[in-house]
Amino acid sequence: MSPVYAQETGGVKGKVRNIRDEGIANATVSARQKGVDLRSAKTDAKGNFLLEGLDSGIYNLAFEARGYSAAVQYNVEIKKGKIRDLGDRLILMVDRSSRVIVRGSVFYKTGHSAGGAKVIIERVNGDGSVKKLLETGTDVMGEFTFSQPEGPAKLRIRATLKDGKGVKEIDVDSAMVYRVAVALDTEPGQ
């Protein structure tokens, strides 16, 4: 950018990150006025961006990244010859519509809910090997929830409570909610 152009325009910089405080690479940051994208930039590998060449004025900044919900920061004032620093307060949340969500219930043979059951979720690989993804417990209603990025996988859900155990395998692929019931091989009180 030429020094004359830099003095006539301004810009904005900052960092886009997720809730775990990790920078989000390749996110798009767009400066909008009246609903029109005037200029855009991409974040680097650490989530940092610099968007230059903006005329003085008030802009809405849109933040978009694959797998995350879009966000907008409204009424950001840009002054000529200045780069406004938004810092690292720009946090994008995971877009649940891009996730595989497993909602499960654990039951006894009698059909009663198994609250307090231990649940282990594993990915079964094509070669038969297994990778543990999560260990959790059921709530008082015998329910649990698990999520992962979309993509094909075979999941094995193992539930145990006292001497009872149950296993269920499901195939997942696209982003959606999968419901699964795991039956224990015992009755309450055994």
Overview of the structural elements:
There is one protein chain. The chain is mainly beta and 190 residues long. It folds into 2 domains: 89 residues, Immunoglobulins (Immunoglobulin-like, Sandwich), CATH 2.60.40.10; 88 residues, Carboxypeptidase-like, regulatory domain (Immunoglobulin-like, Sandwich). Strands 1, 4, 7 and 8 form a 4-stranded mixed beta sheet that branches. β2 and β3 form a beta hairpin. The N and C termini lie far apart (75 Å).
Nutshell version of this structure?
This protein is mainly beta.
Characteristic key phrases:
190 residues; mainly beta; Immunoglobulin-like; 4-stranded mixed β-sheet; 1 helix; 3% helix
Layout of strands and helices, then pairs:
Layout: H1 3-8, E1 10-17, E2 28-33, E3 36-42, E4 48-54, E5 57-64, E6 71-78, E7 83-85, E8 90-91, E9 99-107, E10 118-124, E11 130-137, E12 143-149, E13 153-161, E14 164-172, E15 176-183
Parallel strand pairs: 1-7, 1-8, 9-15
Antiparallel strand pairs: 1-4, 2-3, 2-5, 5-6, 9-12, 10-11, 10-13, 13-14
CATH topology of the largest domain: Immunoglobulin-like
The helix tally amounts to: 1
CATH architecture of the largest domain: Sandwich
- Radius of gyration, rounded? 24 Å
Strand content: over 45%
Rough outline:
elongated
Structural class call reads: mainly beta
Poorly predicted regions: 1-6
Name the CATH superfamily classification of the largest domain. Answer: Immunoglobulins
Quaternary arrangement of the chains shown?
Answer: single chain
How much helix is in the residues?
Answer: under 10%
Distance linking N and C termini:
75 Å
Q: What is the residue-mean pLDDT, rounded to a whole number?
A: 90
Number of domains: 2
